[in-house]
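Question thread 4412

I'm putting together a teaching handout and wanted feedback from people who do this every day. The idea is simple: show students a protein as raw sequence, then show them the structure tokens that encode its fold, then repeat with a second protein so they can compare. Below is the first pair exactly as I plan to print it.
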Amino acid sequence: MREWLKSLRIEKGYTLKEMGEKLRISESYYAMIESGERQKKMDLTLASGLSVILGISVAEIIALEQGRG
């Protein structure tokens, strides 16, 4: 589970559906990313999109993915 991702999404006031729309993926696929079922190793395209939407750097995302956030 990517608790950091869920927390940031909620902090920014976005729903799962809104995140999916912003990333141009389905709500269910985004939910699987957040739960850790998909994108177990997050690719740069996704990290870059999340960076813009959530207002954090790609470096911060990498650190959070590695448990250093």
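The second pair follows. I'd like the answer to focus on this one:
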Amino acid sequence: MTMRYGLRIPSFALGPRTVTLEAMGRYLRRAEDLGFDCAVTIDHLLLTPPAYACTWLEAMTTLAALAGVTRTIRLGTMVLVLPLRNPVYFAKEWATLDVLTGGRTILGLGVGWHEEEFALMGVPYRERGPRTSEAIEVLKALWAGDGVTYEGTFYRFRDLTVDPKPAQTPHPPIWIGGGTQPSEKVYAQTVSNIDPVLRRIARYADTWVPHSSATPEMVTRDWAKVQAFAREYGRDPGRIGRVYSNFVWVLKPGERPESAAPCFKVYSGMDLDYWKTYYLLGTAEEVAERISARIAALDGGVDHIVLNPLNWGLEQLELIAGEVLPRVEAGR
């Protein structure tokens, strides 16, 4: 499989300072020219401090608008909080997007973590994992055929048909995010058992997206479990794609890390030490070296590198494409 490069776009909702659709289109058309394969967006309903100092534009609306100002780049989420949505309505919504983009979507999913968002939407927080699993089954069933009957714990319907079906068959690629991360500092919460998350990835994901802040050691341990769980489900783990993703700021020669602080502060409530430790902040050579280390942690089997610049400026985009990615010791 060929290594592909993507962007997680800085679709920050910053009031009157929110970038225009015209600027987004100009940026992404340049990304297309530079060979980037996909552009994905984060999904959050509310501010989520301390991890984020801002929220993001609503994902579905943003992707629909971007479909009209791009040509070839695939558009998607990384990740969308699926259990906050009704899966039948969402099946129609995403299928419509896939049809209108000519089959250019990637559906990246996650269970979410912000309890206030779930309370606001009337979804029990502790049910988010099993709800996500059922919702994925609902999506796949409704996209595969007509007259569908589903009897789950959370979702039930009989003889249901949803049109249109996605342009991509049997369905758009499903990327699932999750795994071990240094969550105590960021999210003020501890996950005692990550296995249910890894089992969901092993069972349903076309591609796995580890957390951006996870260390190579965390990713290596999680991938070993995902492979074992996949075999239990009768899946070939070699057919599960893998993504390396992270926020990035490339320093030019002579620039100090502190110079990037104003850009990180736009979205992040963390400090410079955190950004230097867990995100990609450094010269092109340093950033490429860290990306290569993560690829090695995933057995060299990374299919996509998805990097999140901190603004819509073309300078960082050109640096990533011209100085960082050519230096990465890529996988298969």
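Top answer:
Good format. For the second protein you could add a caption like this: The chain has twelve helices and 14 strands. The radius of gyration is 19 Å.
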